[in-house]
Design brief:
mainly alpha; Arc Repressor Mutant, subunit A; 71% helix
Amino acid sequence: MPPKAKFTKAEIIEAALNIVRADGYEALTSRALGTYLGSSARPIFTVFKNMEEVQQDMIKSAKALYKEYVNKGLTTEPPFKGVGTQYILFAVNEPKLFQLLFMTEQKQIPDLSGVLPLIDESYEQILLSIQDDYKICKAAGKKLYHHLWIYTHGIATLCATKMCRFTNEEISTMITEVCMSILKKLKEGENND
């Protein structure tokens, strides 16, 4: 009969998430996890096969937390601006998780059209909100999304690495100004076709 688990899967994942939040992904080891839980590492492996499994579940948990931010952004007006603002807020509030999810070197370098679907499972939902709100075609929506993601990723990276701080008003103004200028250019292009 296998030994009774001292900790639940959820408790271990929450501990792993908190270690990464505080000290970064590299700090997540079986020893650190055991210490955080006030135990040896052994009880962790009554629930998980290995640390890779713990890491994968912790990353899923971090992605779920990020998705909560995206969903909150999608409920604001306009949703696309809300998502961009929430992306930046995630970087401000969860800098180590942001770095893990959005600043980790990729094994293969995707091109711009492939990076957003790769890193954000809400990609299609966000793209639809852009098309609906701004009454633009899918190609123009993708172009706007790509430009604004690059811009908001830059702001978020500055925040996550504590290189710069912005007020909520500054973030709102910057996103609006860039979005409106790109939209204007896209609409001019549609009218010239």
